[in-house]
Amino acid sequence: MCDEYQDEEFNEAELISALTRLKSEHRQIDNEIKAITETGVADMLKVGRMKKIKLALKDQIVFIENQLTPDIIA
Known about the structure:
Order of helices and strands: HH
Number of helices: 2
Largest sheet: none
Oligomer: single chain
Helix content: over 70%
Distance between the termini: 29 Å
Shape: elongated
Radius of gyration: 17 Å
């Protein structure tokens, strides 16, 4: 039983690490999109791709946050 608890902690630590990395990537892409659009010479295809990547990252972030948050029975 003690080993299972340690594995859960390790998994939680991995999730937290992944969450931190994903949030950083999401923020970086958001900053890049803003920089591209502010120049006025925006490649809309590139911006569209970046927004899709940003949305996929957000979905992953929400999934991990839900894994880390215990279910609340209402």
